[in-house]
Amino acid sequence: MSAMPPSGGTRVARDLPQTEGRLTENAPLAPLVWFKSGGSAQWLFEPKDTADLSAFLAALDPAVPVLPLGLGSNLIVRDGGVPGVVIRLGKPFAKVSAIDATTLVCGGGASGILVSSSARDAGIGGVEFLRSIPGTVGGFVRMNGGAYGRETKDVLVECEIVLRSGERCVLPVAAVGYSYRHSDLPEGCIVVSATFRGHPGEPSLIQAEMDRIAAEREASQPLRSRTGGSTFKNPDGHKAWALIDAAGCRGLTRGDAQVSEKHCNFLLNLGAATSAEIEALGEEVRDRVKAQSGVELTWEIQRVGVVA
Q: Is the pTM of this model over 0.85?
């Protein structure tokens, strides 16, 4: 753990730049990700604000890798840990405000639940689907998160990012380069805020839609388990879960890792699974699906770090 001055900012951390935020050396990441598995970050950086993040990255050796971390929902952290700096946007980046009758400005660390609830309170409809996506605004924007027939690209107006160089810039949605669960945002950039646009709505009707979505997810997905959410992207013309089921993978295990019996496009940590077991189970599913149907599944879950 780096030394912390009275102000709470980290002034000196070996060869890393000064910061007003918090730097933690050898920070365990398992508690921060939904699978509750994996190794540590060489450094975990929690910036004070966007200016602090920008200054830190500008001064950081360009050779040092940087990884943004949201809620850790769509992520396998490998057991050997993550080299370089993992950046986690905390409370300073978790604010949401309505700027007019249809528009929200959201911090990159704000959850989908907070965004949709804030929209409801402001009478803004059209972003209820974000209630169903486990993650933060930064992850939604980067991966074009979506559910129930809508995607981030449908509501995004613009986003502010901090490049790996520390440069700050604002990109309109047309410049983000969206496709299915993908964007062309620069490698290593951090999404610090996003502007979403919905439409005027009645708060009670917005809440009813959010309740419907929540109930449907509860009924069909293993939300109370240690999981990473949707594991594989839906191939063109197919549903990933149906391909996995047809290949006989429902309930398949490796160590304490299991393919969910409730929704077989979800992998579970039943208790003591290593990240290696979870990832290997996913690869076995891919192999079985390819052999059974000829379709090659693509990982939707991000896998990061070093194999132990």
A: yes
